[in-house]
Amino acid sequence: ISICRDLPNIEVITFSVNGISDLEPLHQCQNLSELYLRKNNITSLDELFYLKALPRLRVLWLAENPCCGPDPHRYRMTVLRNLPSLQKLDNQAVTEEELSQALVDGVEIMAPPARRSVENGWSESSASSAAGATTEPQSELLGCSPEEKNKTQEELDMKPVPRDKYSSFSPQEADCSRKKRNNVLNAILLLMKELDAEGLEIIQQTVVRRLQACQKKEVQEE
């Protein structure tokens, strides 16, 4: 997520299912309008402090994070109190009544989450997150199942990949290779949202040439 510090003009970000716990790198993305953070490791709603400075943020998907807590109403009211410009939260439209109620039931976040420093310069929460990353299932952090991939594509309004496309994976293919392929595909889909017509045409031509080369190779192997 630290790469976002170098992408101030990005408009849509999907980081669902990535083990993310710190939203500080997003506070410079002033053009961000849609942010998808479903099913990560965000433990505190204080992280919303970094999103309050994003004037164009209209869509946020934060469900299935620890910060949502056991009280859905309090969670939603707190998010809307701090981000009143949202038009959709967790794939549910925001109403004027909710925004008014949020002023009563929501908790205003006035400061960023506390992170105590440790000797090596990492924050304690970052160190804990890194330690947790070594024990969490690899599939949660580096890759995702076909269902999760389709969910990510749904967030980007893209057509899900049919399940039968995954049948071509070799049973002997290393898990890390599959996860790398998933991450590369998600990154490409995300970055394509940043391209104009000319850029997309270049991508299309490159893809066509690549497909032709792959098909030619398959024919030769047969």
Automatic annotation (TrEMBL):
Keywords: Leucine-rich repeat, Repeat
Gene3D superfamilies from the UniProt entry: Ribonuclease Inhibitor
GO annotation terms (biological process): cytoskeleton organization
InterPro entries: Leu-rich_rpt, Leu-rich_rpt_4, LRR_dom_sf, U2A'_phosphoprotein32A_C
Composition bias type Basic and acidic residues, residue spans: 146-166
UniProt entry tagged with the keyword Nucleus: no
Annotated U2A'/phosphoprotein 32 family A C-terminal domain residues: 72-90
Region (Disordered): 117-177
Coiled-coil segments: none
Domain of life (superkingdom): Eukaryota
GO cellular component terms given for this protein: ciliary basal body; photoreceptor cell cilium
Biased composition range(s): Low complexity: 123-133
Pfam families on file: LRR_4
Described function: Plays a role in cilia formation and/or maintenance. Plays a role in the regulation of cell morphology and cytoskeletal organization. Involved in DNA damage repair.
Assembly notes: Found in a complex with CFAP410, NEK1 and SPATA7. Interacts with NEK1.
Protein name: Cilia- and flagella-associated protein 410
Organism (species): Gymnorhina tibicen
